[in-house]
Structures are given as C-alpha cells and as structure tokens.
Design goal:
The chain is α/β, with parallel strands linked by helices and 237 residues long. The protein has seven helices and twelve strands. The chain binds glutamine. InterPro entries: Class_I_gatase-like, PdxT/SNO, PdxT/SNO_CS.
Length: 237
Amino acid sequence: MIALRRIGVSGVEVRKPEQLQGLDSLIIPGGESTTMAKLANYHNLFPALREFVGAGKPVWGTCAGLIFLANKAVGQKSGGQELIGGLDCTVHRNFFGSQLQSFETELSVPMLAEKEGGNNTCRGVFIRAPAILDVGSDVEVLADCPVPADRPSITITSGEGVEEEVYSKDRVIVAVRQGNILATAFHPELTSDSRCLGHAMMLMDLCAPTDRHRFFLDMDKEYQAKAFSALSLSSTS
Ligand code: GLN
C-alpha cells in the first residue's frame, strides 16, 4: 500500500468478503501462503475471491499471491493448502530456497518494450520466492530468469511417497498472464525504483478486459503520472 501511494495510486485493504464489493481490481500481495490461506478461510474469503477472479476483473498476485492464484502448488512442507486457483499453472512454493537464498536480479520483460519505447527491464526482488514449473496453453509467459546456482534441488513427494526431482532446466518462469490474471514470483513494490511497480501496473492494465478497467493503455508517458494519480484500486464508479 505504501509503494502504491508512492506512485500516486490509492487503494483499500481487503480482509473480509464484503470489502471486495465495488472494487475494480485486486492485488494479492506476498507473505506466507499457508498463513494467508488460514486467514482467508477464517474470514470465509475464498468464495468471494474466486468470484472476483471469475468475474474477469484484473487481479495481480505477487509471490505468495501467485501461489494463491495457481491451480496447483507443490513444495508444501506438509499436506496441501487451499488456493483460489484460476491460473493454469503449477507453482513450486519455495523454488528458490529459504530466506537466505533471497536475491535481486534484472529481468527482461519483452511485453514492456511496446509501452516503454524499447526499455523492457524490470528489477526483480525474490524473497523465499516461488517459481512457475509449467503453464497451460492459455498462459502467456512474460518473464523468466536463470536458475541460481545455489538453489537447493527440489523434490516433490508423489502419493506413493516416492521423491523425484521436478526441475532441472537452466531458466524458470517468474511472470505470467492469463486473461485478467497477472502473476509475478517477485516483488516489484520492494525496489526503490518506482518504475518497476509502474511497469507491473501497466502489465495489470493489459489484463483489463474492458475499457472501464483500463488505466494505462494508449497513454503516452506524459500522461502516466496523471493516470497513476487518477487510478483508484478501490473503485472508479
Ligand atoms: N514462499 C512463500 C510461501 O510459500 C512466499 C514468499 C513471499 O511471498 N515472499 O508462501
């Protein structure tokens, strides 16, 4: 919320189902997805969140928010956890390892080049970060990044208890879009470079299904600052 305010965007916090009413778009932030699921269950928030995503309104999940939006999450320490779903992908919850393996890197997001006159870089802050292991055919890959050498090898346990290595490629997917859903494994709001959050907002804009939800498309740079001020995540009505 502080990062949004920094770029002139206002929003409201959502903890209860009724607080989703009247909102145009939603950011599901990072944190710890098991705890977030417990809290969402406690407040009976899952049905309202699924309805919001299903209604086609722009939704952006960062890190634990990405996990929440995935149809399938692997890498839980024990048992499963409830997910909102809607994003046709499999996410590994702690792909990049623990807090100690948190890192920052420069990401290339080709889609941004269209909006930013060729500049398509975005600083990625990865904290106990998940990664996307595979995506369905409707999912657009926006960014991937090299797998760091110190990433611990990851395994999943099948129903029979057999462990298998599930990822051995050099690069891994860290940002995707499927229709109204944008998801990033990293935290654009945590860099000192406000451009990164602005970029994410622009990508979120691309997820807007109707003009009513469009905030940044077709605006040149001069207008972006104004658009940031004008955008309220709470409601435009
Ligand atoms: N890996 C964390 C989880 O399982 C997410 C970390 C984050 O949101 N920074 O929820």
